Amino acid sequence: MTSEPEAPRPPDPPRLRSELRWRDAPSEDGALLVDPSTGREFALSRAQAVLLQTFAEHGDIRRTAAIAGERLDLDIDESWLLELLAAVAALGLLAEPGVDAEQLSERQRLARRRHYEDLRAEKLRALLPRLRELPYYARTLDDSSSGLARLPVLDKASVRAHFAEFLPEAMPAGEIRWLSTSGTTGERQQVVRSMVDWDASQPYTWALNRTIEAARGERFCRLTTPFCDGSECHLRGASRAERTRGPRLSLDGGFDIAALPPARLEQMAAELREHEPAYVLADPSYLAMFADQALRRRLPLPRLRFVVTAYELCSALHRRILERVFECPVFDAYGATEYGALAVQCEAGRYHVNPESFVTELRDDEAGDDARELLVTTLDKQLMPLLRYATGDLVRPADAPCTCAWSETDTFASLEGRAVDSVRAPDGRRLAAAAVDRVVAPAARGLVSYCLVQRAEALYRLEYLPAEDFVEASMPAVAAALRAALGPGARVQLTRCRELLPASSGKFRLARADLRSR
Ligand SMILES: [Zn+2]
Q1: Which of the four CATH numbers 1.10.760, 3.40.50, 3.30.1660, 3.30.300 does domain 422-513 have?
Q2: Could you tell me the distance, in angstroms and rounded to a whole number, from the CA of residue 413 to the centre of ligand 1?
Q3: What is the dihedral of CA 315, 321, 324, 327, to 10 degrees?
């Protein structure tokens, strides 16, 4: 018995893969569509949202166009709707047999990555003519703009030497702040910041972490270097009112943060409790040193939703203390006075770069390790825009997309610290501060912080500050791990310290070379 071949079935009319879910009710400004299976969000205009909503209700192209047209008081061309559905299909939001969640997620990742690449390319095209209006770039940029990678790298010394040439003839409207970066006298750099620019990039960076974004606008405490940044000076003895600005209370830390007198320790703990912060934004060394002393004195501390660390490299030891004392997650962020927060750690621990406001490139400096120097181009800064700015900061690129909803962004597996905060192994290899931390932190039991000082080609001294739960017997293993990482010939001395002091910039360093003093 033979069977007739089946006639090809007409293709199924398009339908949505799942019910529409909106982050907030669609408004005049548009709506954020959430894909429940991948957790991603897609920004739609109001018209797109109404079209899609109507399509979800009626499932028929012609009826959708007619009904949505009435709702929007517009003549809706069916081709618009088909275009929208094609875009929605490209994002994997239409039902398709045989497509699993992983494939959908990857498709969305690539579609969004293309979207951001196009957006950045467009912003960069608009940026170059504006740059040429500034004397410095007029001098250094020729007219042939053939791709970012061919444009000159901007180093910090050039900005210091030619600061005035980066300024426009007239300042843009809105609040302007004059600041300077931290660093030793030779490193300090003037910075001018437009708060309009700041507001254009900063919220986007923080939004890359949902937990942080959810606390936006809430009360928080800040603990950072006692350094005066030109806009605010945390002078010892400033009153609490003077240190409070909007929802933020700046705690009165000092260079002696590792050994605070009891009265100041108690005052800081009391201020932290009384301000009732949702979170603390802190330099990790400062907060870890404070937290360890508060723990020793059994001072009650507030319950926080999370801690954000920034300003300097966060050691795994700092993180361990903060998680233990505050019983909450710790998210690290990366930024600089020159351009603000650029990347933030997501819940999965990766650093995600703000995809709207920055282009980042990694420069190989052939130092024999896997750390790369970060070059930053700012896209949303109208005042003092930076093109391929050599930050002096090292990062390690991530080798696979993150598992979180922001996997289309550029990501770093880790921050590696400032290039100057590195030591060299006797064979010449560089160990960046984070590489040193990956050796010290797993072996140590109960350290608050430390600094590995290279004193000669093969001689190193680990200065360490014991924590409340210090286990002295773990220290020989720390020395052995360092010797193994540094390689043949390395000698490692251990020095227990009652206090660690920051550099004159106010920042602590986990590693440094000091080859002059023997
Ligand atoms: Zn992530």
Answers
A1: 3.30.300
A2: 10
A3: -70
